[in-house]
Request: fold
Amino acid sequence: MEKNTVFEGGMGELGLGIEGVLRRAARSLIEQAIETEVAVLLEEFSAVRMVNGRQAVVRNGHLPEREIMTALGPVPVKVPKVRDRSGSGIKFNSALVPPYVRKSRTVAATVPWLLFPTGRAGIGRPPDAR
Reply:
């Protein structure tokens, strides 16, 4: 009788190795950080209204998905767009993923710290640095 020692559950079913899992987690964390940046910007300009009472600074979809080079390899990211209907020139540029930059030093420095939880906000040091 043959004994099957292959584990059939978990991430192996998705065809992802450890690198794929880490890239997926990095993408999620980067997008969450960018969404937080957008929320802060919208909150900052929430009092700016047009003559008809509508908000002047609003979300307006996403830019085309692009790849950012990180220490984990290329990670596809969607960056939200913000529209200024008042014409005063308010723009959203992410500090984490600047426009027209393919390799982001801030992402490469930030992702490892976001992946290792400390028990508080989920941001901390790698296990060997504790």
